[in-house]
Amino acid sequence: MRLRFAFVFALALIISVGLTPFAVQAAPPGVPILASPADGLTTTSHTLTLNWNAVPNASSYDAQIGDTSDFATVLRSVSRIGALYFAIGTSNALPDGVYYWRARANNTDGSGEWSEVRSFTIYTLAPVLASPADGLTTTNHTLTINWNAVSDATSYDAQISGTSDFATVLRSVSRIGALYFAIGTSNALPDGVYYWRARVNTLTGTGPWSEIRRFAVQSLAPVLSSPADSATMTSHTLTINWNSVSNATSYDAQISGTSDFATVLRSASRIGALYFNIGSANALPDGIYYWRARANTMTDVGPWSEVRSFTI
């Protein structure tokens, strides 16, 4: 009897102060502990996954990515997901920049506090140039410039200019999948000094230009073969000969009575042969003569060779 009275008295007291008997206090879940990426990570990947640890009594999670630590603008977010991660894929890839992220847990009693804030940086690398080597001098008017692959690249751009500031771009390619740019016969480069660079394109933007390299294209002069310098001969008909030049398409040759070639007595232009024949139809009278040769390429006329003399 006394126990029943005590129970009734206690129940009446609880009701009188507005409490519900046997009620459990509502409690939102705790704060998630962020797992990866590590705070301050720098990556070249424009797609990544944010991960956090499970929270007891949580039924779902929210996650946010912003470009400021106060999340004044939320750039990417998920709400009420059951997973312990938020994957940034190709469809919502992030451009280069600094980003901040956080997560929180939810249950039927509400949302918990946001986690700590972590940051990460996405930075697209410039391609590492492969060949030609910086400072190369070549007689080839057609060549290929090469660079190494960059992670997350979707395509590449490359430029060739006559100046290191690329004020005027002479040759270029855009959005190519290859790791090279071939200068062929249709766009061969004339003699000169050139500068080149490359850059990468990604799902979200264009990366920085690479270092700048330089190369020079210079046609060679033919090496004269015969007659020997200062040769003396009795024949008024003769043949002058020279050696071939790489990338030459034809040759010119001249004979003069003076070493400055102020007056050209005999000449041949754009010939395919490595010689110039002075026959009976254009025989030379007695005298001292000077001769030289040069190569023509797809884009240029090369320099004159050394000057040799002969006497008839």
Derived from helix and strand composition plus strand pairing, the structural class reads mainly beta
Whole-number average pLDDT? Answer: 92
Shape: rod-shaped
Fraction in beta strands: 35-45%
Low-confidence stretches: 1-15, 19-23
β-strand number = 25
* Number of helical elements: 1
**Gyration radius, to the nearest Å?**
40 Å
Helix amount = under 10%
Order of helices and strands: HEEEEEEEEEEEEEEEEEEEEEEEEE
Largest sheet: 6 strands, mixed
Distance between the termini: 153 Å
Overview of this protein structure:
This protein is mainly beta and 312 residues long. Helix content is 5%, strand content 43%. The protein is built from one helix and 25 strands. Strands 2, 4, 5, 7, 8 and 9 form a six-stranded mixed beta sheet that branches. It has a five-stranded mixed beta sheet with strand order 11-17-16-13-14, with no helix packed on it. It has a five-stranded mixed beta sheet with strand order 19-25-24-21-22, with no helix packed on it. The radius of gyration is 40 Å and the shape is rod-shaped. Mean pLDDT is 92; it is low at 1-15 and 19-23.
